[in-house]
Design brief:
Length: 222
């Protein structure tokens, strides 16, 4: 319930700002890409797990819809596709890589110089659409690819904060509010191990580039 209320708070805050009109600013779109370094913390029954950072240069692309309320504040939403996941060593010889492609809808508030250096924070509503798992046993690999899998949460809400330069480069930190993996739905039973995670937090830091692509709605305001 707390997570739902938090999600509603950010969405309502964003759309409340969206309802305000100005006489000087227009809607515009921004194309964005990012390279992600993710990590997590997985706890599993009867196992001493060790988590490894995961580097993901692709595919992480998005289109953002921005509204600047003044020279110092604004709002954006949009649509993004990301490749996020975690890598877990179950022992010295067994490694499990688990990732999802998500479709995300951010709701963010911006502040700073809207034509220069700025920062933003908000809520990202991501939905897992494709799951891939690779299991390595003594460097021998097996893999699984499933659409709309029940092995991870389908809805993966997260909080994020980002800082962007005037040139369009940005750095972002994101923390997921739910467990990444669904307890009891993991299909790893190799080398005498039964993988049953009880907790799976995930977060990432990324660097990227965002560029304004089109200004397409003009408002006269009142």
């Amino acid at each position: 319930m707390k997570k739902l209320l938090l999600s509603l708070f950010f969405m309502c805050s964003g759309f409340s700002l969206l309802a305000q009109e100005t006489t000087t600013n227009n809607w515009y779109s921004v194309s964005a890409s990012e390279t992600i370094l993710s990590w997590g913390s997985v706890e599993a029954t009867g196992l001493e797990t060790n988590n490894v950072a995961r580097f993901t240069p692709f595919i992480n692309l998005g289109v953002q819809l921005h509204k600047d309320f003044s020279e110092k504040s604004g709002f954006y939403t949009g649509l993004a596709v990301r490749n996020v996941g975690i890598i877990t060593d179950l022992n010295d010889s067994v490694r499990v890589k688990q990732r999802v492609y998500t479709v995300g809808i951010p709701v963010a508030v911006k502040f700073g110089d809207m034509n220069g250096n700025m920062a933003a924070f908000g809520l990202d509503n991501e939905f897992a659409v494709n799951y891939k798992q690779k299991t390595y046993v003594n460097d021998e690999k097996s893999k699984t690819n499933i659409w709309f899998s029940d092995r991870t949460k389908i809805y993966l809400p997260s909080l994020f904060v980002e800082v962007k330069s005037k040139m369009g480069n940005y750095i972002r930190f994101k923390y997921y509010l739910t467990d990444f993996l669904e307890t009891g739905n993991q299909k790893v039973n190799v080398a005498g191990l039964d993988y049953n995670p009880t907790k799976s937090t995930m977060m990432y830091i990324s660097v990227g580039y965002a560029i304004k692509t089109k200004e397409f709605i003009k408002k006269s305001g009142t």
